[in-house]
Amino acid sequence: KTGGEVDLLSALVMDAASQDLIIQEGTIDLNGSNLTVNGSSGTLVVQDGGNLQLQGGETITANTSNPQLLSGSTVTYDGSGSNTIKDYTYSNLVITGSGTFTANATQTVGGDFTQSAGTFTAPSGNFNIFDDFTHTGGTFTHNSGTVVLTGGGQVITGDTTFNNFTKSTSTADTLTFASSSTQTIEGTLTLSGAASNLLALRSDSDGTQWNIDPQGTRTISYLDVKDSYNTNATEINAAGTNSVSSGNNINWNFDPTYTQSDYRFYQNVDN
Fold first, then answer.
1. What was the pLDDT predicted at 267?
2. What pLDDT is attached to residue 19?
3. In which residue ranges of the chain is pLDDT below 70?
4. Which of 3, 5, 73, 134 has the maximum number of C-beta atoms within 10 A of its C-beta?
5. What pLDDT is recorded for position 16?
6. How far apart are CA 236 and CA 212, in angstroms?
7. What distances in angstroms separate CA 260 from CA 224, 228, 244, 264, 266, one per listed residue?
């Protein structure tokens, strides 16, 4: 099936030789039923554009141990009650259910993480996300872990309270925040670019500020910051960190920079 949705009404068992289940496009919703694909060479594959949807408590058995979640695939959790996120390496991970969803100690999302409902308990270790982080509904519980942004051109949407938050890059990159959103970091905030390759922090609406409340340690270097409002009582001290301001920042401290005309003015005053 190349589109639409298939809902299971009972357990699906595919255990004959060479039987495969390949989600090319559209959705297969397990709908609370177990899924078995364990023939002698059978595989369970979710391709780019395919969506494996489950409540969270289902048992999935595949000949290859875990489903093959290819780049661009999606796994959606839509259940109620208490559920554990399965220990897979996800491409896109979506939380839409009203229940509670607990991640493993270390979890990797190779694409987007999206939460619109329910309660998601993040890993107690690293939660590695390669693409965008979207939190538009429900409760994100940081579980004293660290969200690590590992990709390029990433976007943060929604208001979220993190424990540790890390974005480090050795190449020029831009991290974009939804305008008027607030990111609260209770632990360590780490934001860093590299020499000649600054990490730009930007609003998704130029001229409209994005808010940040870093309550713990700040480790920053090689930043280019614009439209940022630090709502914390303690300013973010970017002086001496090789960081620059591109304007419209509040409660940040940068090294003073002068234009050539400023330099000539001060030179004349000295003379």
1. 42
2. 86
3. 1, 257-271
4. 73
5. 87
6. 10
7. 20, 26, 17, 6, 10
CA distance to 167, 213, 240, 254, per residue, from 244 (Å) = 17, 19, 10, 6
Task: Give the model's pLDDT for residue 229.
Answer: 98
Q: Which two tokens stand for residue 77?
A: 């959790």
Two structure tokens written together for 249: 């920042």
* Closest of 165, 108, 114 to residue 135, by C-alpha: 114
Q: Contact, 101 vs 119, CB < 8 A?
A: yes
Non-local CB neighbours of 144 within 8 Å, separated by 6+ positions: 124, 163, 187
pLDDT of residue 1: 63
Determine the straight-line distance between the first and last CA of the chain, rounded to whole angstroms. 81
Q: Are 86 and 109 in contact (CB under 8 A)?
A: no
For residue 61, the tally of other CB atoms under 10 A from its CB is: 15
Q: Tell me, what amino acid is at 64?
A: T
Phi-psi region of 142 (alpha: psi -120 to 50; beta: other; left: phi over 0): alpha
Query: How many residues belong to the chain?
Result: 271
The predicted model scores a pTM of 0.92
Beta bridge partners of 102: 84, 121
CA distance 97 to 115: 9
Q: Is 56 helix (H, G, I), strand (E, B) or coil?
A: coil
One-letter amino acid identity for 97? G
Q: Which pair of structure tokens corresponds to residue 57?
A: 């408590």
Task: Please tell me the predicted confidence (pLDDT) of residue 257.
Answer: 64
Cα 100 from Cα 95, distance rounded (Å): 10
